[in-house]
Write a structure and sequence with these properties.
With 291 residues, the protein is α/β, with parallel strands linked by helices. It has 2 domains: 4-121, Up-down Bundle (Glutathione S-transferase Yfyf (Class Pi), Chain A, domain 2), CATH 1.20.1050.140; 140-290, 3-Layer(aba) Sandwich (Rossmann fold). The protein contains 13 helices and 8 strands. It has helices at residues 19-32, 50-53, 55-71, 82-95, 98-105, 121-136, 159-162, 172-179, 203-220, 230-238, 240-245, 258-265, 283-290, and strands at 4-8, 34-38, 76-79, 117-120, 146-150, 183-184, 224-227, 255-257. The strands form 2 sheets. Strands 2-1-3-4 form a 4-stranded parallel beta sheet, sandwiched between helices. The protein has a 4-stranded parallel beta sheet with strand order 6-5-7-8, with helices on both faces. Helix 1 links the parallel strand 1 and strand 2.
Length: 291
């Protein structure tokens, strides 16, 4: 089994609303031999609102975590959350800028001089570990399951910052799901916005945008949607009953994290994958796989 070790930044949602993503991420990485060394005393990266208040303070919030990861002796820090990732990458770019570095470090007790490279867990698995190596370890293929992969709007964009996969037609999750044995259907809206955090001030926006995504998945004939973003998964899963009432879809569509399905194919104990946390029942899909 191939061995890879990286610093690990869980992010705030991992200990709350997306605990199933966190648990399944750890379980999958353990099954693959990817060692995640959690950053001790990590703190919030500022998520989506910090940069709207102060760009330098936002960079410092993530810069602190980059400095801690660097002190662990790693050159890579992985996070499962795209929102955390874009903040970490933005911070690293500001610290590398001579005009901004001193402003960011002035807010830090321990300055971040040479930031480690932030990557998504998805990127680590696909690029550093390898899809072929994952395929070799599949124990329970997802035979018979039809899925569409939804990346959201920031996993690969802006491309000059994220530097991962194709910004308009990413294939990382598609390739992993195919390696796991699922039938991956073409999905034209894989990088369209779900409404993100607009659900509180503008519920109508999230209903319309997420409804469009769910409708497209149903039209494609998908049994399930596969996601890699806590906020995207929440909008499509938690709000799905409301969206159905608006007539966007005719039947429930389970919304999995890619780590939950990949973990299933790797033979990971289901208790570690936390299917019980999903709002839309995954029972039909799981029975289809086992049958």
């Amino acid at each position: 089994m191939k061995k890879t070790t990286v610093a690990y930044y869980p992010g705030c949602s991992a200990v709350g609303t997306s605990v199933e993503y966190e648990k399944s991420t750890r379980a999958v990485c353990d099954a693959l031999g990817i060692q995640l060394e959690e950053i001790q005393d990590w703190s919030c990266c500022g998520s989506s609102p910090a940069h709207t208040v102060n760009h330098i303070l936002s960079a410092a919030l993530s810069g602190r975590n980059l400095a801690l990861a660097g002190s662990m002796g790693h050159d890579t820090v992985a996070t499962p959350c795209p929102s955390c990732l874009i903040n970490l990458r933005t911070s690293a770019r500001k610290i590398e800028d001579p005009k901004l570095c001193h402003k960011v470090n002035a807010l830090l007790e321990d300055p971040c001089e040479n930031p480690v490279e932030p990557k998504s867990v998805l990127q680590v698995i696909v690029e550093d570990y390898g899809v072929d190596e994952v395929a070799r370890l599949i124990r329970k293929p997802l035979n018979g399951l039809k899925v569409v992969c939804y990346y959201g709007c920031i996993m690969t964009r802006p491309p000059e910052l994220m530097r991962f996969d194709d910004p308009e037609n990413p294939m990382a999750m598609d390739d992993l799901m195919e390696a796991a044995g699922a039938e991956v259907l073409p999905f034209p809206l894989k990088v369209e916005c779900c409404g993100a955090s607009s659900g509180i001030p503008r519920k109508d926006i999230v209903m319309r945008l997420s409804g469009k995504l769910l409708h497209a998945a149903e039209e494609c004939g998908a049994d399930a949607i596969v996601s890699a973003c806590p906020l995207c998964q929440m909008n499509l899963d938690l709000r799905q009953s409301q969206i159905r009432k608006e007539g966007y879809i005719s039947k429930p569509i389970p919304v999995f994290y890619f780590t939950q399905l990949l973990g299933t194919a790797l033979g990971v104990d289901k208790r570690s994958l936390r299917f019980d946390k999903l709002v839309v029942s995954p029972k039909r899909c799981l029975e289809k796989i086992s049958g």
